[in-house]
Amino acid sequence: MKNNKATIHDISRSLGIDSSTVSRALNGSDRVKDKTKELINKKAEELGYRKNIMARNLRMNRTFTIGVIVPRIDRHFFAKLIAGIEETAFNLNYEVIIAQSLDSLEREKKLLANMLNNRVDGLLISTTMETISYDHFDAYKDENSPIIFVDRPNKIGYNSNVIINDQETSLNATQHLIDNGYKNIVHFAGPQEVDLYKLRLAGYKAALEKNGIEFNEDYVIESRLMQEDGEKMAKQILELPNVDAVFAANDHAAIGAMKRLKEQGVKIPEDIAFMGFSDEPISEYIEPGLSTVKQPATLMGKEATSLLIGQIENKSGDIVHTKILDAELIVRNSTKKITA
Amino acid sequence: MKNNKATIHDISRSLGIDSSTVSRALNGSDRVKDKTKELINKKAEELGYRKNIMARNLRMNRTFTIGVIVPRIDRHFFAKLIAGIEETAFNLNYEVIIAQSLDSLEREKKLLANMLNNRVDGLLISTTMETISYDHFDAYKDENSPIIFVDRPNKIGYNSNVIINDQETSLNATQHLIDNGYKNIVHFAGPQEVDLYKLRLAGYKAALEKNGIEFNEDYVIESRLMQEDGEKMAKQILELPNVDAVFAANDHAAIGAMKRLKEQGVKIPEDIAFMGFSDEPISEYIEPGLSTVKQPATLMGKEATSLLIGQIENKSGDIVHTKILDAELIVRNSTKKITA
DNA sequence: ATAATTCATACAATCGATTGTATTGCATGT
DNA sequence: ACATGCAATACAATCGATTGTATGAATTAT
After folding, report:
1. What is the pLDDT at residue B2?
2. CA of B311 vs chain A CAs: smallest distance (Å)
């Protein structure tokens, strides 16, 4: 077990060339003669030299690392997102540090501090549902490192966002239900402190209005949109009069409700149609297939990462930018047209 | 934008206390008087001091970071695995650097070099299907940093493994088919260069032998086990005589085949039963539900991480250890008992 | 009262690379 | 032949923390 000790100083010593020259040679500076470079590179190879990133980081005050904080890594959307992030970061020679907040604000705060401590060059974050104030991001203001909110946008003055157009997409999704003959549409809303869920509700409302359908407050049921919430809400909509469709702010809630309703003999979509949001992998496979909105998760990760690294390297300070990507309406059997 | 410059030297200067004492105080050393510690901590707080991890890393020659390389982050098993890794690492105050090989050996090599360059304190890796020689791990021998193979075990002399017992589990899965009355069982095998798929085939064979069923070479079909492979194999098994069940080395292949067969009017499980492997999320939702083997992915991540960090911190050098976790047989309708 | 011990802190080297400035030697122009 | 300029390399400071050793003061033992 040789201790892999070779440093530029070892090369320097064994060649009688100053370590500054060695450093420049290894970095391809044109201040070093080609012949000398060759010598140095050969010796480096020979000694199994490997640059000490920690020393470079300290001196350059950079880490070539970006931090990523998401609620849960194993949620499909975030796994896709991270896959996109990693791919782009790899291509641009950055490392990716990952952490999950587990949807806990307290943990998010800790992770944020961690990321600061670890001197990431930039941060990508998708905040928890609990995150409704942003004081804990203040520390970032004092750094010069950029921060981008993904999926759950914010404006805290010095950040960028990469999102989809939740309102417009929700309008389209609701419109699709209306186009297919559904009129009494319940909305499974998410926590209204979260911007994105507010927008989805707004899109739903806008669609109703656009089609001259009166908005009924009782038709909006708010929850955290877990599958279990969906199961509970199934009961509630059976007690409402005339409901013929549901637009859920995510797939999980829709799937939970569908499951419970099917058990009770309700036919989908004949009795009640369902439109989800997110395109979970299972949504394609349940019976009937769940119509939904597909978020371009991997693309969002890629876009966010190149935006972030662009900001890191331009250091143009306060580029604030909001990138809106298109979401795609996926039509399956849960919203089949009513053939009266 | 204050440049957040405070270092131990700033504290040292403004307090007239040597920086070494400041350092010790901030690290809670008992070589500093409590009263002095208080002073220092107060001043640190006041100056918004934040330890420079890069300097510490350089000096201590450690990063408190573990590297993770998996084929794809957005594959369910790996997302779960990583979630477990991150959680444990967080609790033990380690950071996690993530990279995906995209099942390319070439990329795996690059990532491995990257991880070395970044001086991770230890490495968790699940190798690609292409990885059948291990020369590129040699560089790790020269480091003193431990490496653990997860899910796809290896013995390269200086590593540990965290795996499930693929052979035994496969035996049980096959036995379950046999117990339910199936006798002519096809095996969808994975690439036989990969140990794990070799073991699954071995388990299948062992089950046959144990039950006095003759092994038929034609009943083993090898592929890379993508869903499309499953669809192709559906045709092949229809051309074989008497097939009444399939044991697939992963769920994807099983699902592909089931889909194609259903289209052709084959009844599952009445005509052909299916047993998968991995418990993909969709396996619960397809019709019929796919019986399968559930790998404890999150637990594997946790176990691997605490094992790894244990090795890092004990530095007991060459602890080689193989941890075998239990997989669980999940019985659904695709293997329903034959009621003659 | 003095030597021995302990306690609290200061001193100074170190980790390995980067980078602004200084120096040397050589070629070029006149 | 001599000043000028440039090419190539050397010198030395620096990034911010850690840590072994030295020092001085305070406490204890004898």
Report:
1. 43
2. 17
Q: How far is Cα A175 from Cα A196, in angstroms, rounded to an integer?
A: 19
Query: Per the domain annotation, does A305 fall within a domain?
Result: yes
Cα A28 to Cα A36, A57, B241, distances in angstroms = 11, 18, 66
- Chain D bases closer than 7 angstroms to a protein Cβ: 7-20
In this structure, what CATH number is given to the domain that contains residue A36?
A: 1.10.260.40
Nucleotide nearest to A61 (CA to C1'): D15
Does residue B320 approach strand D to less than 7 Å at its CB? Answer: no
Nearest residue of B to residue A90 by CA position?
Answer: B99
CA distance A308 to A323: 12
Question: How many angstroms separate the CA of residue A208 from the nearest CA in chain B?
Answer: 32
Residues A26-41: tens digit of each pLDDT: 999 999 999 999 999 9
Is the torsion defined by CA of B163, B168, B171, B177 positive or negative? negative
Is the same domain home to B186 and B285? Answer: yes
Q: Are residues B178 and B285 in the same domain?
A: yes
**What's the Cα-to-Cα distance from A183 to each of A253, A270, A338, B213, rounded to whole Å?**
20, 13, 11, 60
Q: Can you tell me which residue has its alpha carbon closest to the C1' of nucleotide D9?
A: A21
How distant is C1' of D12 from CA of B44, in Å?
31
A18 CB-to-strand D distance under 7 Å: yes
Q: Is there a single domain that holds both residue A240 and residue A291?
A: yes
> So what's the pLDDT on residue A143?
77
What does the DSSP assignment read for A12-41?
HHHHT--HHHHHHHHTT-TTS-HHHHHHHH
Between residue 11 and residue 40 of chain B, the positions with Cβ below 7 Å from nucleic chain D are 19-20, 23-24, 26-27
Within this chain, do residues B271 and B303 fall inside the same structural domain, yes or no?
no
Q: What tens digit of pLDDT does each residue of B125-134 get?
A: 999 988 888 8
pLDDT for A285: 86
What distance in Å separates the CA atoms of residue A247 and residue A182, rounded to the nearest whole number? 11
Q: Write out the residue range of the structural domain in which residue B220 sits.
A: 166-295+329-335
Residues of chain A with pLDDT under 50: 1-2
Residue type present at position B268: I
Q: Of residues 133 to 192 in chain A, which lie within 7 A of strand D by their beta carbon?
A: none
- Predicted confidence (pLDDT) at residue B316 exceeds the cutoff of 60: no
A131 and A79 within one domain: yes
Interface with chain A: mutation pick from B53, B66, B81, highest number of A CBs within 10 Å: B53
Yes or no, beta carbons of A117 and B50 under 8 Å apart: yes
**What percentage of chain B reaches a pLDDT higher than 90?**
85
Compute the radius of gyration of chain A from its Cα atoms: 26
What the block records as the tokens of B257 is: 């085949």
Q: Are residues A171 and A265 in the same domain?
A: yes
Rounded CA–C1' distance between A54 and C18, in angstroms: 12
Q: What's the rounded Cα separation, in Å, for the pair B272 and B246?
A: 7
**A31: Cβ under 7 Å from strand D?**
yes
**B271 in a structural domain:** yes
Is B8:B23 a contact under the CB 8 Å cutoff?
yes
Read off the pLDDT of each residue in B177-190 and give the average, rounded to a whole number: 97
Q: Look at chain A and report how many structural domains it folds into.
A: 3
Residues A92 and A203 in one domain: no
Encode pLDDT of B55-100 as tens digits: 999 999 999 999 999 999 999 999 999 999 999 999 999 999 999 9
